[in-house]
Amino acid sequence: MTGHKDWFSSLDESIKTKVKFTYDSFINAERIGKSQIQKKNGTTSTISNVLYVPRMKNNLISLGQLLERGYRINMEDKMLKIFNIKKIDLEGSTFK
Fold it and tell me: Where is the Retrovirus-related Pol polyprotein from transposon TNT 1-94-like beta-barrel domain (predicted)?
């Protein structure tokens, strides 16, 4: 999920849904699409089924969905590392 509309390479405007957060609070997701991300080695990858949530101030990634797709995850030293089968695929800060 992201609030950065300009990060999308494509958006489906027909998809509208509500995202549930803690304490039964909800936020509206107005679109779903594909977003390009730049990896540590400078290449880009596409993440599919990214929700566009205009009111989001920070980005969220579903660790559960990544695990279901066969990725491995490591969190240490305030860093999140996402591995594909052979190498680190994505890396980013977990805290500001």
Answer: 1-71
Q: Answer for the pair 74, 81: CB distance below 8 angstroms, yes or no.
A: yes
Let me know: does 76 contact 95? Beta carbons within 8 Å. no
| 8 A C-beta contact, residue 73 and residue 92 | no
Longest dimension (CA), the chain: 40
Tell me: the pLDDT tens digits for 49-73? 999 999 888 888 888 888 888 888 8
The answer to whether residue 37 scores a pLDDT higher than 90 is: no
Going from N- to C-terminal start, the domains of the chain cover 1-57, 61-96
**Local confidence band at 78 (pLDDT 50, 70, 90 cut-offs):** confident
Reported residue count of the chain is 96
Amino acid, res. 74: N
